[in-house]
Amino acid sequence: MAGRFNPRTPTRTTVRGGDLHVPAPTQPPHAGNGKATRHYTPPTPLDLGLTLGPLRRGPADPTFRTTRDGSIWRASRTPEGPGTLRVALRNGTAEAEAWGEGAEWLLAHLPALLGDTDAPEEFAPRHRLVAESARRRPGLRLTRTGLVLESLIPSILEQKVTTDEAYRAWRLLVRKYGEPAPGPTAMPDHMYVMPDPRTWALIPSWEWHRAGVDAKRSSTILRAVRVARRLEEAAGLPPEAAAARLHLVPGIGPWTSAETLQRAMGAPDLVTVGDLHLPGIVGYALAGDRTADDAAMLELLAPYAGQRHRATRLILLSGHTPPRRAPRMSPRDIAAL
After folding, report:
1. Residue 94: which of 29, 32, 146, 34 has the closest Cα?
2. Rounded CA gap, 103 and 88, in Å?
3. Which of 120, 49, 35, 107 is nearest to 76 (CA)?
4. Could you give the strand order of the β-sheet that contains 35-40, starting from the edge strand earlier in sequence?
5. Whole-structure pTM over 0.85, yes or no?
6. How far apart are CA 121 and CA 123, in angstroms?
7. What is d(CA 103, CA 112) in angstroms, rounded to the nearest whole number?
8. DSSP E strands: which ranges in the chain?
9. Which helix (H) or strand (E) holds 104?
10. What DSSP element (H or E) covers 128?
């Protein structure tokens, strides 16, 4: 387990880009006309939407936009400050532009973001459905952002509520307490960088309530941002140690840590346990058992040890899900209480 710390006391540990262990840039970014640019050619086919799609929190996520020309825009709070990244694929090459204090950091980490640290060749399908899903999506890569908090906070908001509720809360809080994303006048409208840890900590209780966030989730976020620097360091740890560090914060369990580290670290073997639907989906796809629980799911995924997260993504992408019998979970209007 990682060294213990008090999740209620801020620390002074700093985070450096080198701690993330990403490959050195093959082409250094360069600045010009108020922006930094970089071209990167992935060694294997890349599907930009499939790779970066998990970073979007709903169709109106103010930190993520897809434009008609196929470009993906992301607004992030990096260790160097706020930054906006635009990525587009042209003839197999990723053309990237970045703005803001975090521009150079974003471009330096572009290969990892696009799956350069991923190893899909290590994946061996054991089921026909998984093999067919993998064959149809040769460009799927597991992204690695190197940023923990930007995935942790929305994952906490998604605890035990509908996705629509969580997406709404994220959208409202980021727009109200974040800052406009740096970039050109031609960038998509209403893009924001999420608030910094201090701003999250100062959001008054009634604003959490208006966003539909109950006290349990807001308290977990407040505990997390107090030790934000220590949590950001988790991106440079082995997955088990990273998860253990996150679990030291009360309110963060295996479901939340897996959802966070799958994105921040590109961890190919971290399975989301404790999910309401995933065990039944995996059980139905691999064994025709829609009643599977976490234990049964993990047993079915055992042949994919080391790549279990990739296996679950391919199962979800296959669309082979059990017919719905029970009514959908109804949203709770916390703000009206």
Report:
1. 29
2. 16
3. 107
4. 30-32, 35-40, 93-99, 81-90, 72-78, 64-66
5. yes
6. 5
7. 15
8. 30-32, 35-40, 64-66, 72-78, 81-90, 93-99, 179-180, 192-193
9. helix 103-108
10. helix 128-136
What is the token pair recorded at 4?
Answer: 């213990």
User: Could you tell me which of 80, 109, 84 has the C-alpha nearest to residue 97?
Assistant: 84
For residue 111, what are the CA distances in angstroms to 22, 32, 117, 262, 319? 8, 21, 8, 16, 29
Distance CA 18, CA 204 (A): 35
List the beta bridge partners of residue 88.
Answer: 95
Dist. CA 337–CA 205, nearest whole Å = 14
Chain segment 25-73, per-residue pLDDT in tens: 334 444 434 589 999 999 999 999 999 999 999 999 999 999 999 999 9
Count of Cβ atoms closer than 10 Å to residue 160 Cβ: 14
**Token pair of 328 as six digits:** 């959908």
Q: Which of 230, 200, 225 is nearest to 14 (CA)?
A: 230
Sign for the pseudo-dihedral over CA of 103, 113, 264, 73: positive
Structure tokens at 19: 């701690």
* Amino acid letter, 46: L
- Mind listing the pLDDT tens digit for each residue in 159-172? 999 999 999 999 99
Distance CA 247, CA 230 (A): 12
